[in-house]
Amino acid sequence: MPERGQTGADTISGFATYRWEAALVTLAPRFYYSRQISRRSTLGSSYISWSKIQFEWVNAMLLGSTGRRSARKYVLGATAVLLAVTAAACSSSSSSGPGTSTSGAPKAGGSLTVLEWNGFAGQWVGLDPATNTDGASDQSQMDAVFGGLFELGAHGAIVPDLATGYQFSNGNKTITITLRQGVKFTDGTPFNAAAAVWNIQRDLKSTCSCKPVWLVTSVTSTGPYTVQVNLAMPDGAFIDQIFDSTADWMASPTAFQKMGESAFSLKPVGAGPFEVVSDTLNSVLVLKRNPGYWQAGHPYLDSLTFKSVGGDESAYEAMLAGEAQVYEDMSTPSLLSQASQHFNVVNQFGTSPYDLQLNTLIPPFNDVRARQAIYYATNFAPILQHVFNNLYPATEGFTGPGGICYQPTVPGYPQYNLAKAKALVKQLGGLTVNLGTITNVVAQETTEALQTEWNAAGIKTTLSAYPITTLIAQFLSKKWQAMIQTAGAYDPAAGVGVGFRFSSVSPFSGVHDPHLDGLLNQASGTTDAATRCSYYDQAAQYIAQKFYGPFYFAFAPANLAVKGVTGPGLTSPLPSVAVVPIIPWEDVAYSGS
Asked: How many whole angstroms separate alpha carbon 164 and alpha carbon 143?
């Protein structure tokens, strides 16, 4: 059976770039991800094609401190551009704490309990990809059960999982995906092109906001193990966009039809490394090893349990008490400092900056002077220092240092100027703002700090905090005024990239500007990396010029693991697709009791 990372005759192409300041450093190392994956770095010959923005609506409803699963973008095969941040930038992607060594062969067997915050990944209303309205917030559970067509791994390489490769043709409007042969769902039925077509077509018809939004004209099987997706327009970012889309997860058509939607949602059947034993919604999900998993010797664990927990502090106490071995996505700086004394703490490559979203459709922010006042009254430096302990790099653009087309400084970006803010508020005859965020301690501390800063400029601020479902409803109502959220993805054209917060067609955007839409479409439509980043640079400058919403810093929460746990994203960093990485649970091992 071929190893993950082997593509045979398949042509796999793509790119991953990190831009640190203005310097691009090409690397050609050999990376390891449980299995060896070789690739070479050739900026000039890299084949890249990009197009329409795809939005994975629900996955980034929350801000950094809660963001769920991230990165699964791996660039495999023929050529890949690998550009990395400097050593200083990598400080936010480090592993600390006891037992960080991952040398030696992983130990097979054992059980692992993973804690998930109940405001995001610890809340699941079902695990059917097409009907779970929480979408990619539950990616950890979904990936464990369903696997994925592709995975995003270290340094941004596309790793084939249930698929083995892909090809672009027809001017990049046709994507042919080659599937892995010999794979079976855990109900014993075959995984093949017919099953994949059924899944993708069902996802496209889904009413979920997390469905893929490609402009698809047809999805067909062109062979027993080949799927062809035809688009109305070129989209070279198609594979980057699939990582945080429901279309990456393959469910058993036979099991779904036999069980019905409700029963399947509670106990779904996939072809991933684990299968469901029991599922208590929003509380506990118990999984056991899939003995027929396609990759020999994997998964390492005999069982995997996900438990919902009230927050960072509760999770930390449970970890100290030995009630769990992993906690995903901790964001409380003071706890991270303490946790590093007891556990492995891995900070990921940040891709998603905090964004102060302004709704330009309604007052007060349909008046540019009100937006200007917010920019000039906002000083993020003390917030980054006092709330986040300077853990994250500041940025003036919509991508972090772990993503492609990273632009930390934007020409003409409005800087903090209290005198200008006061003058604008006076011109407006006063300014009152309702500032919202997700229900989370760190997020709420951030809004409280902004309230204090804005008060100095004469801006009156009321604060609101919402659980994720209410937060989504606020956006859909279009009556919100300002929100603290994360914006940005590993690839700006994917998931919760720039279009998620700034495109006219996104329900989670406060901006409706045809010129900005044009820049984003041009960026995603070009096949040249330099040209693409140039368009994104122009978009970042235009956002600043129009005062559409200031950015803070590139956030990336940390994962905690006890000594004895090893695996990508837990003892070594992974890039984030959106806010956090996606853990490949088939590669996680635990040598403890």
From this structure: 17
